[in-house]
Every structure is written in structure tokens, then in C-alpha cells.
Design brief:
Length: about 650
């Protein structure tokens, strides 16, 4: 399609007229228009235009000066838009459609709400909730930037040049003023810059949009769920109704045996404060739903464009029919994906580099979710849609994980006793995935946990299975595309017996593995991958080289998943009493042999808050899985009774 012309506009405009100035509605959808085809001189002649449809084109930006000041309805679905700030030229806009623009995120939704105060509907939905969120964010950011201004101006010496100082203020505000979820940081930085510039221009006297009337807070409800093969559920739970407010309680701690202590012989506990208790997987948003079991959580990668080294505070959780992405700081459910009839058991993140049709590179965080149906759903959560479905197995998928070195390589483990390595590829021009199968790994029992070997993830994969801990060769330069277990590891000293379930498995660092199962009730085992592998020889069954054992619950209940924070030397595991066991094992990793024979006590046992602390009647609940972000700032625990608990380390 070439540039627009008056004849085309009159043909596709309503009402039919030989004068452009009389057209009120114009359909320019499906013409393969590019941004340069929108001629401002021509379009500005549409003085009475109120509705414009630009859907199903190739637009990457909207020109700034289209001159359509009376426009009330704009459809821009299924384009390549990457920025929404040009929409401010339509101050009377009431309805806007932006679905199918894969490079727009929740930050752009907030920008739209701020720029268009008369907007009533976005993508066919009421815009009032987003508007309320923008008002709250704007109010808090204005308070913080104003406080920063006062502090900044007070620090200036009389001889400093005012103009230079004020320019420095804008830079310092953008750098130092933070508020809200990390996933909204693009919007908050954008507003901080605007507020700062307005303060500088007015000499610190006023900010546009600062005097917004206070609105009463509303509790938000969330949704749905179901129950996993072989899972244990304790009866007798009573209903509870969590308030949306922050709750505080203290957690008891235990001193670690053999650990360096303070001058008084004591070991200070980690300070963890409960922030949020959410029921965001409830069936029909019911607060009475205490049956939906939550199975897995994973923190979002923090390597967004321009934010390398930042810490993620968004966590994905799964259970029942829903996958949620939650901001740990605020407790806001940022995104929710539902698949009716599904029950999700596992989630995993990867960060992909996607190239647009114009050759621009974009960074996508993609979430893989899988469960009962044996399908993997690939979710672009920021844009709010499913990019593809992999029909991976005929039976339920127990767990999945991405390769740490190949961003498109995904392992799926199923109740069909197979592990499959997929290459999901990158999205095509329609932003869908076309996955290909690379390897099939056969197991003698159901694989429960997957763990690429930290020191050689392209060569070997560990799996905790119903029948033990197994290892496969996953090198792609080998000819066999279907392989059996190469080595089985056993944990009982002096025993060649296998068949002991391993339902917890994670690397603590490049060499040390943490594992647990029914072969060592009441303990978590720390063992050396390198020392065990060297001692293997040609054997197919090898006893692990145990470095230490950690004291844990003596329960016989299975499927409590453990996790680690390798950068912090932290091991985490829930139990049947609703507690989270926390171990700081850095002293063990640095200690020379022989290590203590007795199981090491936890650094801390994080107890479920008491009813008085919560203001509710809370029954005992099992913590199925625990995860923390890499810096151990936030800790998330999922229960068998539909509760997501979030703690913050202070």
C-alpha cells in the first residue's frame, strides 16, 4: 500500500461525501499501512472525524501531528506499535483498542490512562480500575519527587548555578526516586521525569495532576483451581478471609550448629516480615476456596532492557486453572492467565531476544506453564497473550525448566516417564512459536524435579524421580536422539539399594547439590557433584559423596519441593506444619573436611503467622513449595490450601 489519497479516504469514510471535512468515521484497516503512509497534511483535513480504524496494519508509531482533535474512538489492533505517547494529541478520546501489539506492555496501559483523561474503555473493557491505579501511583510519586526536590534544594550552596543545579535535579530524581512494582518501572521513571521537569519549570511550586482526590482502597479478588496426581491433602480446613492490609509477625529462629557466632555466642536470625497473603487462584473468586492446591512458583528474570543487574520482584505462581504473576512489594496480581479444565503444576521463565519486522531488537520475558493436560503454554505475560501451545506429552507434565545457557531450550518431564528437550525457537512474524523436539530421555519412574548440572548444563541433566536420582547425557553432538539414564545416584551409606524417591533437588553452587527424599527422612542432603562423578568410573549406580546433612521435618508426607539462592548460599524448604525451613550453608561450603556428622540445624524456621497476627482464624496448612529471588529480598511460599504467602527480608 502506498501513501493515502483523498479518493481512498472518501471511499472508506462515512457518511459518504465528496468533502473530507464531513467524514465522521473512517476505516483504514487491513491496508498494510506503515507509519510513513499516514500523511498529517491529508488527515488533518478530516475536521469532523470522530472514529478511526487503523487495525491490521504495520504501524510502529503514530505521527505526532495528525490534527484529529475531535477523535473519540480509535482502533489500532494488530500492529507493531511500541510507544503510546503520541496518543496525547487526541484529548477527547473515549475508546481505544490496542490488542495484538506485542511490544506494548502494562506500562503503556498506564501511560494511556494518564495521557487520556476522558478514556472510558480500553480494549473493550472499563478503564476506571487502571485510572485508579495511575492516580495512586501518581500521587505517591508526586509526594516522593517533591520531598526529593526539597532535600536537593536544601543541599545547594549559594554559589551553585541555579540552571545547572535544576538540570542535575531531574537526573537525580530519575535515578533515586522509586516506587511500585519493578514491572511498572518504565511508567514510574517516565512520570518521575515529567514531575521533576514540571517542578523545575515552576520553581518548585506546582505539579500537574498532583491534586487528585483521594479514593477509598478496594480489596481485589482473584481466581480459580483443582488437585494433582499423588498429592496429599489434609482434611478439616476452616474458611478464612484475608484482609488486603499488610500484616506483621515475628518468626522464631534456631542457631546453626558449627556456625561462626557473634561475640555472645549467638547467631542473629534473618529478619523476614510477612507482607501479603493472597488467594489469587480461587474458583470463582471465592474466599471460601481452601481446596485449590498451589504447586510451583518462579521469579521473573530481571534482565530487562536497560536494567541489567536489577533484582526481580515479580513471581509467577501456578495452581488450578490459573497462572498468576504477582508483584511481591505491593501484592498486586499484575497478570493472570486461565485455561479452563487445566491444572497447572509447573512454571518456568526464559528471556528471549525478538527482532521486529523493522529490524529492531526487543527483549521478551516468556513464561512456560504446564500441567495435567500434557501441554506447555508459552505466555508473553506483559502483552497479555499466549504465543503458542506445545502438545508435549500424552500424560500430565510434572515439571519443566529452561536451559541456563540456551534461552530457547526447554525440558519437560511427564508422568509418562519421559523427559523431552524442546527448542521453542523465537516467535515468527505472527508472534507464535514453532517448537521442535531435540531429545527424548527415558526414565524408569516418574521424574519429579529437573536440574541441569550447574558446571556443565549443556552436557548433563539431573532429575529427582519417584525411583531415585538419575543423570542423563544431553549433549546434542551425540547421534542418539533417544537415551536412557546414564547414572543413578544413591544416598544410603553402604547400600546399593535404589528406588528411593527424590522429590527435592537444586544446586547450591556450581558443585554442591541439595536433595531430599524418602531415603533420608528428616534430613536434606548436601553432596558434591564433582567428587561423586569422579568416583563413578564405569558404574551405572553410584553412591553420592555426602558433604553434610541438614535437619528437616521428620514427616513422611512427600512432594515438598526445595529451592536455593546460589548467590547467597541459601537452601529453603516447606513442611507439613506450614513452616519454611531456611538454611544459610555458606559456612559449610567453606569448611574443610571432615564436616560435622550430625545434621545441621536450620538458620531459621519461619512459622506460619498466628491467628492474632493475621486477625483471622488460620488453620494449619502445608507449604508445598518455596522460592526466593536471587538477592533473597522476597520469599514466596505456596500452600495446599490456596494461599500465596510473601515475606520481605528487612
Amino acid at each position: 500500500m502506498g501513501p493515502l489519497n483523498p479518493q481512498l479516504l472518501m471511499e472508506r469514510g462515512q457518511p459518504k461525501s465528496r468533502r473530507l471535512g464531513r467524514i465522521r468515521s473512517l476505516d483504514l484497516s487491513g491496508l498494510e499501512l506503515h507509519s510513513e503512509h499516514l500523511d498529517p497534511k491529508l488527515l488533518s483535513r478530516l475536521k469532523q472525524l470522530q472514529e478511526l480504524d487503523l487495525s491490521n496494519n504495520q504501524l510502529e508509531v503514530l505521527p505526532d501531528n495528525l490534527g484529529l482533535s475531535h477523535l473519540r474512538v480509535l482502533h489500532c489492533c494488530n500492529n507493531q506499535l511500541g510507544d503510546v505517547t503520541a496518543l496525547c494529541q487526541f484529548p477527547k478520546l473515549e475508546e481505544l483498542s490496542l490488542e495484538g501489539n506485542p511490544f506494548l506492555t502494562v506500562n503503556d496501559n498506564l501511560k494511556v490512562s494518564f495521557l487520556l483523561p476522558k478514556l472510558r474503555k480500553v480494549n473493550g473493557k472499563d478503564a476506571s480500575s487502571t485510572s485508579s491505579q495511575v492516580e495512586n501511583l501518581n500521587r505517591e510519586l508526586t509526594i516522593r519527587v517533591t520531598a526529593h526536590w526539597e532535600k536537593f534544594m536544601a543541599s545547594l550552596s549559594p554559589e551553585e548555578e541555579a540552571e545547572k543545579a535544576r538540570a542535575d535535579f531531574v537526573r537525580s530524581a530519575v535515578r533515586d526516586v522509586h516506587y511500585g512494582p519493578e514491572s511498572l518501572s518504565e511508567f514510574t521513571r517516565w512520570r518521575v521525569r515529567m514531575i521533576s521537569e514540571e517542578l523545575v519549570a515552576s520553581g518548585g511550586t506546582q505539579v500537574r495532576g498532583a491534586n487528585i482526590p483521594e479514593k477509598s482502597p478496594k480489596a481485589t479478588a482473584v481466581q480459580e483451581p483443582r488437585a494433582r496426581p499423588g498429592a496429599c491433602k489434609r482434611p478439616g480446613d476452616a474458611p478464612l478471609n484475608f484482609s488486603p492490609y499488610k500484616r506483621v509477625c515475628t518468626s522464631p529462629s534456631a542457631q546453626v550448629e558449627g556456625r561462626p557466632t557473634g561475640s555472645d555466642g549467638s547467631q542473629p536470625a534473618l529478619k523476614l516480615e510477612p507482607l501479603h497473603f493472597l488467594q489469587c487462584h480461587s474458583k470463582n473468586n471465592s474466599p471460601q476456596d481452601l481446596k485449590t492446591q498451589l504447586w510451583a512458583c518462579a521469579f521473573e528474570p530481571a534482565c530487562e532492557e536497560g536494567h541489567t543487574g536489577s533484582t526481580s520482584q515479580s513471581v509467577a505462581t501456578c495452581g488450578g486453572e490459573a497462572v498468576c504473576v504477582i508483584d511481591c512489594q505491593t501484592g498486586i496480581v499484575l497478570h493472570k492467565y486461565k485455561a479452563p479444565g487445566e491444572e497447572f503444576f509447573s512454571v518456568a521463565w526464559t528471556a528471549l531476544t525478538v527482532v521486529t519486522q523493522a529490524g529492531h531488537k526487543k527483549r521478551w520475558n516468556v513464561l512456560a506453564a504446564a500441567g495435567l493436560r500434557g501441554q506447555v503454554r508459552l505466555l508473553h505475560v506483559r502483552a497479555g497473550f499466549c504465543c503458542g501451545v506445545i502438545r508435549a506429552h500424552k500424560k500430565a507434565i510434572a515439571t519443566l525448566c529452561f536451559s541456563p545457557t540456551h534461552e530457547t531450550h526447554l525440558f519437560t518431564a511427564s508422568y509418562d516417564k519421559r523427559i523431552i528437550l524442546w527448542d521453542i525457537g523465537v516467535p515468527n512474524e505472527d508472534y507464535t512459536f514453532q517448537a521442535s523436539q531435540l531429545l527424548t530421555l527415558d526414565s524408569t519412574s516418574t521424574p519429579l524435579r529437573l536440574c541441569p548440572v550447574a558446571s556443565c548444563p549443556d552436557a548433563y541433566l539431573l532429575a529427582g524421580c519417584e525411583g531415585g536420582c538419575c543423570c542423563w547425557d544431553v549433549r546434542l553432538d551425540q547421534p542418539q536422539k533417544r537415551r536412557v539414564c546414564e547414572v543413578e545416584f544413591i544416598f544410603s551409606e553402604g547400600s546399593q539399594a535404589s528406588g528411593q524417591r527424590v522429590d527435592g533437588l537444586a544446586f547450591v553452587n556450581e558443585d554442591v547439590v541439595a536433595s531430599k527424599g524418602n531415603g533420608g527422612l528428616g534430613t536434606i542432603c548436601l553432596w558434591s557433584w564433582s567428587q561423586t562423578w569422579v568416583s563413578r568410573g564405569s558404574q551405572s549406580t553410584v553412591a553420592v559423596v555426602v558433604l553434610a546433612r541438614l535437619q528437616w521435618s521428620p514427616t513422611e508426607v512427600a512432594y515438598f519441593s526445595l529451592s536455593t539462592c546460589p548467590d547467597k548460599g541459601i537452601v529453603l524448604c516447606g513442611d507439613e506444619e506450614g513452616s519454611v525451613w531456611i538454611y544459610d550453608v555458606r559456612h559449610l561450603l567453606m569448611q574443610q573436611p571432615p564436616l560435622p556428622a550430625a545434621p545441621q540445624a536450620p538458620t531459621q524456621i519461619l512459622k506460619w503467622p498466628q491467628p492474632r497476627a493475621l486477625g483471622q482464624t488460620v488453620t494449619r496448612t502445608m507449604v508445598n513449595t518455596v522460592a526466593a529471588n536471587p538477592t533473597f529480598t522476597y520469599l514466596t511460599a505456596l500452600t495446599d490450601s490456596n494461599i500465596v504467602a510473601i515475606w520481605e527480608r528487612s
